[in-house]
Structure formats: structure tokens, C-alpha cells
Amino acid sequence: MQLSLTIDGKKYVVDVEVIEGEEVRMPASFPQPVSTIQSRNPEPPPAARPQPAKPVADNLPDEKVCRSPIAGIVNRVNVQVGQKLQVNDLLVVLEAMKMETNITAHTAGTVKAILATPGEAVKSGQALIEFE
Q1: For the chain, which residues make up each domain, given as ranges?
Q2: pTM attached to this predicted model
């Protein structure tokens, strides 16, 4: 049996073998077979939604931005815009490989913008907090 899957706009055809004597169950949320979908009037794919613009902090000097030292998921943001900070105040908690990493302020200042939200995946070097 062949299945056709589309992941991130790229189509894959997968051969699936059904082992004799085993019952095959499809979850209710499983999409219908491709042949059924193709027999309907196809609708054009929805237009890509524009992503909300985030402040550009890539060209700011390092003393004005706190960057992620690792790739991970933002677990908590412990500051608010306008908050005054001292060196080593806790800014963000990242989770990577089931371990939490505390990101602290490397300089005293005031939070100008928060560039990451809880649950967001961030890359190493990505700006998390902008200082005034």
C-alpha cells in the first residue's frame, strides 16, 4: 500500500506494508486517502500568512542585547518592559535536552523590549532581551 504525504509543502510517497493477521486501525484524525482527496474539487492552498514582525536586534551592539547562548525552548521570561536590572538578574529560562539554563543580565540597565515568548524555539545567538 502506498501513502502520499505532504510535509512543509514537499510531497513524499511512502510504501507501507500491512503484516498479515494484524488489524490496521487509522485514528479518526488521520486524513483520508489521497485518491479520495483528489476526486473532490481541489481548493488552492491558502496564502501564507504574514508573520508578525519582531524588533530587529541583530545589528545592535552586544551590550544592548541579551542573546541566547544555546538553542532551546523559552520556558520562562522573568522580566517586563521598563524593568530596571542589575548584573546577574535572571532574565530568561531556556530548556534544552530536558535541562534548564538560566540566562542572566550581563549588564545593568532597563528592559526596552522582550524579543522571545514562552514556548518559542530560539537559536543560539538569537536576541532575547533588548536593553535601553
Answers
A1: 2-39, 62-131
A2: 0.55
